[in-house]
Amino acid sequence: MRSRIVAVAACAAAIAGSVGTAHAEPVSPDVSAVHAALNSAAMPISTKTAQSIVLALARTTSGTPRYNYFPRSVHLVEGVAQPFLYDTVAADCLPSGFGDQNDSVGIAQAIAGPAVDDNLPVPVIPAGTVNVFFNAMNTAMSSPLQGDNLEVAWLNLSTGASGRAPMFQERPNDYVVTLSNTIATGRGTVVFAVFGSVLDSTSNGLPPCDYAPVVGVVRA
């Protein structure tokens, strides 16, 4: 499991590393080269994923502002949300009308316990657990039966514990897909990587939104 998480994090390292170089010259890596480089990673990889990684790199290196968005489906009574290192993107998966490339921006955040979110089935997030949630902007609401192929992998740098779990709709429907999971990571510094795809449930015939992996470092 540790090697899988390292592979996932390595896929996102170039994006995360570019966060500190905003306003540098935009990079334009070859999509086919990115796809070939990621084929051995222990995660779902498609040509669209590679295209999404190229777009995410372009967003961060060009200094594109991050989305200022917090979902209404998250109702924090106690605790704070910790944003991941950058906004991710899924290439060309939305209906017409959402921009020149019809791309979806993905926003990942985490709530470390102890915390309380009234919109979770079990509102209390205990110490040593983290609720990771992901918003797929401009997609329609999800469904518990929809079968989104989105996952989260994690590694606790303080203890060496690690794992991988699916993300699903556990909060009430909102106007965009919001998927999450509460992970028992233990206390410490935890590296998370969210990767995979989200479906737009109201748009027939559209491909899944295949997101570039997004990494967060959370104090649990």
UniProtKB/TrEMBL annotation:
What is the superkingdom listed in this entry's lineage?
Answer: Bacteria
> For this UniProt entry, which residues form the secretion signal?
1-24
Question: What are the record keywords, sorted?
Answer: Signal
Q: What is this protein called?
A: Secreted protein
